[in-house]
From TrEMBL:
Biological processes annotated in GO: fucose metabolic process
Homology family: Belongs to the glycosyltransferase GT106 family.
Keywords carried by this UniProt record: Carbohydrate metabolism, Fucose metabolism, Glycosyltransferase, Membrane, Transferase, Transmembrane, Transmembrane helix
Keyword Glycosyltransferase tagged: yes
Annotated transmembrane regions: 57-78
Protein name as it appears in the record: O-fucosyltransferase family protein
Length: 573
């Protein structure tokens, strides 16, 4: 490059000198002998050559100059691939290993790819709608309920785990012909939220909306002028109607008041259609947050919409409690094992885990970096705005750095709302979780990084209200892909991600009826417009097969600690 530049400069000087000498010679009308490198003949020959070929020479010089300018521009704005790039150029035969920080230096926009469709909606979603009205044969509360028979419920877990208990409590009361007392929320669990039902949910709306289905009262009336202490029972998980009639009804008839404790997933997943529709009426219509929570949640959504026309809400679920409970390991050495091991001991029933097996089976949340790479491979560019619903992420900013590098427009309720605005919610994990629930429900695309309670609840809700895109990582397949990611091009990687994610994107008919938890797949409450072919047969087959594989993975009883803001205190004990 330097030799070419030097040669060009010398040629330009030579041509300029020749022109000056020629004009001077003609003006003086004299003959001057010019010795160039000791040869007059050489000068004359060179002059004739330049004169005859002057157009070609100047064209050649102009072309060379243009190429040099182009090379200079490209070297500044498009640096050549280096060892810092995460994926190799397509035709490269070199293989190398990169670290997390090097992922930030790769420009994914040029090769991100897409799914060949609108990333923000489904073309077929308009052909489906939620339908949960009771049929004419469904007995109403005033015809079915027996007097002086009261059912009380003590829920368990975080906000969304308690939500499942509230929904099933209404159905259980209907099965038992009992009056339901407003459920008592869990205030004794690890996260110590003292909120009662009426501080999170609109209790009057709840009672009014369900009045035709089940009679609901705010508190148990006194018996003979004295406080009434109900009989406590714990029913087995997945208890069906016959189970309730056998185990609970005799006690209820005898004592007239029964409290079911630790009430989460205590009702069968499979019920008749009318009871399933009752579940949907409770979940999608009767359970409405209080006005302060709704107002703040809508404000968060509006602020995200002001930043971009579309945005993603990500339930990252990479808090220490989740990693400890799942028994996963992410390469943090003895420090990570000690910290997560101490938290895991709080659940006495958990056995020793095999981290490699757990992750291989797809039961571990993806790391923040892996989530970012998956989204980029699906076609979402770095200009996309992401709202992250999360508590304290394990590893803090160091864990989040790759995700923020891939998606710099990174937001949370703490970044788009002031401390003063969040003050009335920030001391209560359930109310903070409710705010995230609203944003994740209203977002254009919801991404769930695990199959826990919030993910299932929102997946079902988004199906019911228009099949809005809901992405669940196919963690089992992606685990193997991430292990081998440094041995393939970005195009190969993104193509495989898109293939593996078929059946995990929240499309209509993605899951077979009856598959998965009903709250995630409320098939009895999903109706389809008649006479419309909504999905090609091949795509439907692929989606069902992938869904079956996903559901075959055993889903443990997630301890849904949605927000553990004091986890650092636990880790420092």
């Amino acid at each position: 490059m330097e030799n070419i530049m030097t040669t060009l400069k010398e040629l330009k000087k030579l041509i300029f000198s020749l022109k000056i000498r020629r004009k001077k010679s003609e003006r003086n009308n004299t003959t001057t002998t010019i010795h160039l490198h000791g040869s007059n003949g050489f000068y004359i020959g060179l002059k004739l050559i330049f004169w005859r070929k002057r157009r070609r020479v100047f064209s050649f010089i102009s072309a060379i100059s243009g190429c040099l300018l182009l090379l200079l521009f490209s070297s500044v704005y498009f640096p050549p691939p280096t060892a810092n790039n995460l994926f190799l150029p397509r035709h490269s035969s070199v293989r190398h290993v990169v670290n997390v920080r090097e992922a930030l230096e790769y420009n994914f926009e040029a090769s991100g790819g897409n799914l060949g469709r609108d990333l923000w909606s489904w073309s077929q979603s308009t052909f489906y709608y939620g339908c949960s009205n009771a049929s004419k044969t469904f007995q109403t509360a005033n015809r079915k309920k027996l007097p002086d028979r009261y059912l009380l419920i003590a829920t368990s877990g975080g906000l969304n785990q308690q939500r499942t208990g509230i929904i099933d409590a209404v159905v259980a009361a209907y099965i038992l012909n009992a009056t339901l007392v407003i459920p008592r929320l869990d205030q004794q669990s690890y996260w110590k939220d003292t909120s009662c039902f009426a501080e999170i949910f609109d209790v009057n709306w709840f009672i009014s909306y369900l009045s035709r289905d089940v009679e609901i009262i705010k508190e148990l009336p006194p018996k003979g002028g004295k406080a009434w202490i109900p009989r406590t029972i714990r029913v087995p998980r997945k208890c069906d109607p016959t189970c309730y009639e056998t185990r609970v009804l005799p006690v209820l008839n005898r004592t007239q008041a029964v409290e079911l404790t630790k009430f989460d997933y205590r009702l069968s997943n499979r019920l008749d259609t009318e009871l399933q529709k009752l579940r949907c009426r409770v979940n999608y219509h009767a359970l409405r947050f209080t006005d302060p929570i709704l107002k703040m949640g809508k404000l968060l959504v509006e602020r995200m919409k002001m930043k971009a026309k579309y945005f993603i809400a990500l339930h990252l679920r990479f808090e220490p409690d989740m990693l400890a409970f799942s028994g996963c390991y992410y390469g943090g050495g003895d420090k990570e094992r000690a910290e997560l091991g101490a938290i895991r001991k709080r659940w006495k029933t958990l056995h020793a885990s095999n981290p490699e097996k757990v992750r291989r089976n797809g039961k571990c949340p993806l790391t923040p970096e892996e989530v970012g790479l998956m989204l980029r491979a699906l076609g979402f560019g770095s200009d996309v705005h992401i709202y992250v619903a999360s508590g304290d992420v394990y590893g803090g900013e160091e864990s989040l750095a790759p995700l923020k590098g891939l998606f710099p427009n990174f937001h949370s309720k703490q970044t788009i709302a002031t401390k003063e605005e969040l003050a009335q919610f920030s001391s209560f994990s359930g109310r903070m979780a409710a705010l995230d629930y609203i944003v994740c429900d209203e977002t254009d695309v919801f991404v769930a990084n695990n199959n826990g309670n919030m993910a299932r609840m929102l997946a079902g809700r988004r199906r019911y209200f228009g099949h809005k895109p809901t992405i669940r990582p196919n963690a089992r397949k992606l685990y193997k892909l991430f292990l081998d990611r440094n041995n393939m091009t970005w195009e190969e990687f993104s193509s495989r991600v898109r293939t593996y994610q078929i059946g995990f994107m929240g499309e209509p008919n993605e899951m077979k009826p009856g598959k998965g938890e009903f709250h995630e797949n409320p098939d009895s409450c999903l109706c389809q417009a008649r006479g419309i072919e909504t999905i090609e047969e091949k795509n439907r087959k692929d989606a069902v097969e992938m869904s079956d594989e996903y559901q075959s993975i055993e889903d443990p009883d997630w301890i849904d600690v949605d927000y553990l803001y004091k986890i650092e205190e636990v880790m420092s004990d």
